[in-house]
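User: Here's a chain of 362 residues. Predict its fold as tokens.
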Amino acid sequence: MRMKDVKLLWGRAANRCAFPDCKIELAPSGSVNTIGEMAHIIAESPNGPRGEGDIPLKEKNDYSNLILLCPTHHRIIDNNPEEWTVEKLRQLKENHEKRVSTLLDQGRISISSIDNSVFLTSRKKEWCDFAKDYVWVISSITPLEVSEETKETIDTSDSTLWEVLNNLELPRDISGSSVVNPYHTRTDYYGVINEDLRYILEGIGHRVQIFGNGHCEFLISLEESTRHITKSASAKHPEELGSMRALRYTDIAECFIRELQGLKDIWNTALPFNDMLITVAITNTNSTRLIPKETKWPPPVFGFPVNSKTLEYSCVINKKADPKSLSEQVIKRFVNYYGLVVDTVFDENGDLIPPTLLHYRR
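Assistant: Prediction complete.
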């Protein structure tokens, strides 16, 4: 889901459940038992409730196909799709929003804003300052409503949280280790952090940070790999790479897979939110090309040059989201940034399928 669709949904519903006669007021930063749920009128999956609807897949997360409900009424409409049809839910949503509009005009209702943009802007600036001139792969999850002043919503001293943090996986070929080292876990101003920058001058390092307000971020340095791949590719294919740097597709993919799985583990273990904004980025991508697969012959396909200093993608996801499907969604998006495509990221054995140019598709 796009953040603008989320804001439209919550704003026009006035943070209230759209089900008839339900008076509950919802809060996007509340607990699992009180937070509103953004339900699909036509399910994302063809096998889901009312999933046979006639809209394209890419539009199923749009505002027009979402309705804001409390957990109880979300279950009711999904458990009884024959009664709660697409047409009935669209009418229910329209009636609710008209009622909200009338109450707003009469001054009988107020709407709490849902916004995390100021907080995220400060985090993105910090990421760029922290990365300096190095390539870092970054993934984060953020509550829909959070600010610099937001009070703590989670206990970052909780031993269960520390346990899941200390068992997060790293891509061994990139980080030199398959798991984070618990020795590097400590408290800090924001909450709790696991950070290893001992070999950052060589381009190796990571940082995982969990904030008291519920925001979490996972960063892995790809600088050492980028240097190695660039040197190798420049020697073998100088005419293709020129003065640009080379990023290896499998390295980027492995970082996102580990980061998104780790953040999902933290979310499932310790965070009380049903929906969060996921933000993923790669820093210092200006003058880079992507190498999907290294081969001696035929020569490898290079992605098109990228001149943006930072590549970024964000969307709102539900706590039920599958980490593998989420990784596939993110990886496909970053492949597209380099003018490449991949229909399926993983083969039947779970291995990565290299992307290719669009006109190479068969």
